[in-house]
Amino acid sequence: MIAAFLFILSLFSALSPSHSQRPTDIRIDCGATEKSTIDGIEWLPDTGYISSGTPKNVMTKDLLQTLATVRTFPLKNNLFKKFCYEIQVVLGRTTKYMVRTTYFYGGIGGDSNPRPPVFDQIVDGTLWAVVNTTEDYMNGNSAYYEGIFKPTGKNLSVCLAANTFTDSDPFISSLEVVPLWDQLYNSTDFNTYALSLVARHSFGFSGSIIKYPDDQFDRYWEPFGESNSPSLSSENVSVSGIWNVPPVRVFTTRLAKEQPEPLVLMWPPASLPNSTYYIALYFADDRVSTSSRMLDITINGITYYNNLSLTPTGVVVFASQWPLSGLTNLTLTPSTGSNIGPLINAGEVFQMLTVGGKTLARDVVAIESLKQSFHNPPVDWNGDPCLPRQYSWTGVTCSEGPRIRIVTLNLTGMGLSGLISPNISKMTALTTISLKGLEILHLEDNRLGGQIASLLGNLKNLRELFVYNNNLTGQVPSNIAGKPGLNLRVTPGNPFLILPQS
Ligand SMILES: *[C@@H]1O[C@H](CO)[C@@H](O)[C@H](O)[C@H]1NC(C)=O
Ligand SMILES: *[C@@H]1O[C@H](CO)[C@@H](O)[C@H](O)[C@H]1NC(C)=O
Ligand SMILES: *[C@@H]1O[C@H](CO)[C@@H](O)[C@H](O)[C@H]1NC(C)=O
Ligand SMILES: *[C@@H]1O[C@H](CO)[C@@H](O)[C@H](O)[C@H]1NC(C)=O
Ligand SMILES: *[C@@H]1O[C@H](CO)[C@@H](O)[C@H](O)[C@H]1NC(C)=O
Ligand SMILES: *[C@@H]1O[C@H](CO)[C@@H](O)[C@H](O)[C@H]1NC(C)=O
Ligand SMILES: *[C@@H]1O[C@H](CO)[C@@H](O)[C@H](O)[C@H]1NC(C)=O
Ligand SMILES: *[C@@H]1O[C@H](CO)[C@@H](O)[C@H](O)[C@H]1NC(C)=O
Ligand SMILES: *[C@@H]1O[C@H](CO)[C@@H](O)[C@H](O)[C@H]1NC(C)=O
Ligand SMILES: *[C@@H]1O[C@H](CO)[C@@H](O)[C@H](O)[C@H]1NC(C)=O
């Protein structure tokens, strides 16, 4: 189970042209052909970010612009494994990014597929979540997923992939990538972990989702629990200095007890898989007083924090790795000696994901340049070539262990055309820069032209080279023809190739 959140379709979008988003934020309206601006946020069409899939219009009327189109990814009998958006990360890979994907099915699979498909979503080499929007869609809502990731390369890739439950074409409505300041969630080591949002709530609040411009990073703070205390205006709140920079507005409402008695919340509301979680709870005292409001906090009966003193300037208590499983309860009790009722303003819970790692950088460079030399590379040659394991590029197999290298390239009969040679610079990439671990290279049954690069003979581990049934020319280089232990097949086909003397 991974959380999907309700997201009420907004039929009318308020115009607030006075705000403008930060230029480094990237908002992609998948399947759209034109730019649009909604609530001061600019959305771009997705064509510059993806080379596969088909744009479609959703039939449902009166939708928010970003939900009105999707991009779908034809499965072709699962021939292709993953479909990736590639986002250039302008602030570099030391910055972490909030990634949000939004899904509204809108019946694009036709009458034979009334329910949305279930599929996987991936960021770089990390399997992020199973996307199951069935329940939200049945309720007329879109669903979104949000996570925090540090890119592993110059591009961040966000991919969709079929899993064993997928019964129609995966689709996506929108994709957002927003850089976060270093200080946000900085107790987490984002080289090792990513965070996947489970819940983010503004307590005692019943309006529509709090987001940009209240939250400068456009995180979504959903309403949770009605409060009978009146809200304050943001001018009456003096919260500052909290590293995660929650919006001031979440401190204007609260869930509270008037009497000094425990406040129990069943929160987060969903049943959670057994895993470790990042939890942040936010508080600000709403009175100026000499007697301080002190809380003891427990989660499922386990002490989370004792004698927390609330102040009008705000305080956060976070746990960077807290185990949770199933339903959760959060209890706030006045500390011994404190006779003022407890309160809470906001909270966030993320599941911690261990990041999937990355393919050896030199191999990535080499295979990217091989990809450039094909006119028609396989559509799933995007994202990390080897990872996640079950979603390596078509035809690519990789080594196990911590150093992940490409060991096999089986591109048999993939209808490839292009010149793998004589553009030696590219083959140089293949041979001398990298792919030193390559053992098997199958390029047979394609339409590849040009000569066989002698540099292939330098691949120390190469033991199978099949290039028959192409349109190669020139001579078979002697260091390849004579390479001991190499199983070489150049015929049939290749009528213009000069065969080695045997
Ligand atoms: C990186 O992403 C940009 C678009 O943001 C794309 O044009 C480029 O081809 C991508 N690079 C790679 C290696 O995929
Ligand atoms: C998807 O969610 C629906 C509704 O919650 C559930 O009935 C279904 O079993 C889920 N499908 C998968 C494959 O998890
Ligand atoms: C997190 O950011 C704050 C504010 O910049 C800084 O004081 C603190 O040392 C940082 N913590 C870590 C673990 O980097
Ligand atoms: C809120 O702030 C305004 C302006 O500073 C002030 O006039 C008002 O009395 C304050 N209200 C409360 C409840 O503190
Ligand atoms: C959660 O998983 C851990 C480690 O796999 C195990 O020790 C623990 O008992 C599990 N907890 C629950 C509540 O299932
Ligand atoms: C909260 O969780 C603890 C531990 O699971 C349980 O003993 C307690 O009964 C729960 N309290 C409520 C109000 O559900
Ligand atoms: C909390 O504060 C009370 C009163 O100041 C003190 O007696 C108690 O030991 C404190 N508890 C902890 C866990 O520090
Ligand atoms: C290469 O891929 C083709 C098509 O998927 C498959 O039939 C063949 O068995 C594979 N060859 C090797 C050596 O894995
Ligand atoms: C060979 O590669 C270079 C550099 O990438 C490129 O400019 C050139 O057009 C390529 N030549 C052919 C014949 O593909
Ligand atoms: C095969 O290569 C020859 C010689 O370079 C060329 O004339 C011919 O057009 C090529 N055929 C195909 C089908 O690419």
TrEMBL record:
Keywords: Leucine-rich repeat, Membrane, Repeat, Signal, Transmembrane, Transmembrane helix. It is found in: Membrane. Its main location: membrane. SUPFAM superfamilies: L domain-like. One of its GO terms (cellular component) is membrane. This is Uncharacterized protein. Pfam families: LRR_1, LRRNT_2, Malectin_like. Residues 362-399 form the Leucine-rich repeat-containing N-terminal plant-type domain.
